[in-house]
Design goal:
binds NADP nicotinamide-adenine-dinucleotide phosphate, alpha/beta, seven-stranded parallel β-sheet, Rossmann fold, globular
Length: 234
């Protein structure tokens, strides 16, 4: 049994990670900013009473993150696998996007992940083989960026490229602590963010992701992979 920690578990990919990790027999700490409204999570809790804990965590609020990890430390709960999943998008392009939206997207997609990653270290160090997964996107790949306009979600693309640098740097900085860090894109998934036209059902994408993480060689860190486990160019 592994101890899994997820941000943004109220819906979408985060919720599905919680559901599938529970069905595999793991313990899940499912965090969200408004537990009182996370009805789906409470249904999961009814079915898996001992193995799921629902906790409040708003990735935009450092106090909320600190409090969550302090509670976990008090309970001596290690983290084997941490999913930095909470994320937001704005599809506006370079010409349209408001600066307040750029700030919001960076706050959730980059700064939130950095704060979670840093404050989680004591709980990660209690695991034998701790791994952090930063939920990234092919839209954040500079190498894959062509010369055509492709959605032009400028703030989101920049935030995920920056998140990828956080992955690379944190993998180096945390290596002496034996904490591995990778970026993973879930593919294009039918969630509120991905929309109905997306390629994957959420259950399919998460199953591919978890399967590929299971097969990931134990020395791999500081890489960017897709839902299938194949490396994506930065
Ligand atoms: N769907 C795709 O096609 C796709 C593709 C590539 C990458 N991704 C990445 O995968 C991750 C999950 O995406 P998704 O498709 O599941 O999106 P989603 O359906 O829109 O869900 C986003 C989740 O993030 C949470 N969240 C937003 N702001 C938060 C905050 N300040 N604190 C805590 N939680 C917060 C939301 O919580 P509330 O319920 O409280 O709003 C929700 O649980 C994101 O990082 C996204 O960038 C998705």
């Amino acid at each position: 049994m592994k101890n899994i920690f997820i941000t943004g578990a109220s819906r979408g990919i985060g919720f599905e990670i919680a559901k599938q990790c529970l069905s595999m027999g793991n313990h899940v700490t499912a965090t969200c900013r408004n537990p009182s409204q996370a009805n789906q999570l409470f249904l999961l809790q009814n079915q898996n009473k001992e193995r799921i804990e629902i906790m409040e965590l708003d990735v935009e609020n450092e106090d909320s993150i600190r409090l969550c990890f302090e509670k976990l430390k008090e309970k001596n709960r290690p983290i084997d696998l941490l999913f930095n999943n909470a994320g937001v998008i704005d599809w506006s392009d370079l010409f349209e996007v408001s600066i307040s939206s750029v700030e919001k997207i960076y706050k959730v997609n980059l700064i939130g992940c950095l704060m979670v990653l840093r404050l989680a270290i004591p709980c990660l160090q209690q695991s034998i083989a701790p791994l952090i997964i930063n939920l990234s996107s092919r839209l954040g790949s500079i190498d894959l960026r062509g010369e055509i306009q492709l959605g032009g979600a400028i703030a989101y693309q920049c935030s995920k490229a920056a998140l990828n640098m956080l992955t690379k740097q944190a993998a180096i900085d945390l290596k002496p602590l034996k904490i591995r860090v990778i970026s993973q894109s879930p593919g294009w998934v039918k969630t509120e963010m991905g929309g109905v036209e997306a390629k994957y059902q959420v259950s399919e994408a998460v199953s591919l992701m978890l399967n590929s993480l299971d097969q990931l060689p134990s020395d791999k860190t500081g890489i960017f992979i897709g839902e299938d486990g194949k490396e994506i160019p930065w």
